[in-house]
Amino acid sequence: MADERVSAIPVVDNGDKMVDVRLGGIAYDGADEAGAWLRVGLARRLRVADLALGEDLRLLVREGFRPAALQEQYFERYRRGLLAADPSLSQESSVMLASRFISPPAVAPHVSGAAVDLTLADHLGQPLDLGTPIDATPEESEGACYFAAENVGGTARQNRETLALALQSAGLVNYPTEWWHWSYGDRYWALSTGRPAAVYGPVGSGR
Q: What positions are marked as the site Transition state stabilizer (predicted)?
């Protein structure tokens, strides 16, 4: 996400309000209330994807909106961990490496209510096997957190493909280093889909 092509994308916010995804029937098991909120355009697309999964599967959201201060905290903690593991890294290199996994706050889609971390669950709401836990780092998962990783089992691979089919058909894009991270309307989405601008910019913590 530190790619200059991402940061160069302009933002023309369309003013979509924030909504609680649970009101649209989407399951949520996040740690706090803020994470259940997303831009309405994204929430509607999640509903479309959820219905497309059929009666036996459903989406399970872990986190949507993330306040800018929390995004900064996550990014810096991970970046400092990389520096501790390899003191030879320059500050610039640590930022670039950290941004593979956690978006720099300036371009982070979670801060815009434009991204969601989620998984697949069965009809009882039990999470399915997708190869790694949500938020597994490239280091601790040996790269299995990447969507296209080859070091995951067949069931996990099939579940990732099922998730992708539903979400891509609804207009979302995946950030490839995190199988669970999908977005709509942010700068990365605009770059990935050839749009001239992002339609969602940062929102205040008060929504």
A: 66
